[in-house]
């Protein structure tokens, strides 16, 4: 009888040791790497937004191209601010506010939605990828800029970058739209493809 009880206890211990990992423990591990609002605000305080004065549209093509690259670089820094690639709901709202210094609320939301996916189970946002989403960060040999003004206080920019390597040529296309609000420009569209 003692042998049967001992075997039953041993079997119970083995079953207890081989059960699936606790889902709560996995969630806790994930939450430990989540960047919160305060840490994100500290990072944002070190990232200076690009100049957004409306007079930018009166500058030379080369100055406008340099400015577009500056907007692109700032955007990448803001979107990749959570060093762990994960942030909570409060941090996401701060990121949207930060992007709102340059972009319309709708465009800021679209950028976050493109760069992050929400985990509704634990309420965090996780980066879709660690690679840069913005194509202007690469160096292109030649740039060609086209500027138009479809209406008063609105601008559209189209930028083409070309880079030749051996027997092939790579081409990058960027399109962006801006509206004047007060004495500032606000970005309503900003997309790049290659």
The chain-level mean pLDDT equals 81
Number of β-strand runs? 7
**Outline:** globular
Strand order across the largest sheet = 4-5-6-7
How helical, in percent, are the residues?
25-40%
What is the fold's blueprint, element by element?
Elements: H1 2-17, H2 23-32, H3 37-44, H4 61-79, E1 86-88, H5 89-99, H6 105-115, E2 116-119, E3 124-127, E4 142-151, E5 154-165, E6 168-181, E7 184-193
Antiparallel strand pairs: 1-3, 2-3, 4-5, 5-6, 6-7
Helix pairs in contact: 3-5, 5-6
Question: Would you give an account of this structure?
Answer:
The chain is α+β, with helices and mostly antiparallel strands. It is built from six helices and seven strands. The chain has a four-stranded antiparallel beta sheet, with no helix packed on it. A three-stranded antiparallel beta sheet has the order 1-3-2. It is globular, with a radius of gyration of 25 Å. The protein starts with a helix and ends with a strand.
Task: Kindly summarize this structure in a few lines.
The N and C termini lie far apart (76 Å). The longest helix has 19 residues.
Spell out the key features of this protein.
194 residues, alpha+beta, 3-stranded antiparallel beta sheet, 39% helix
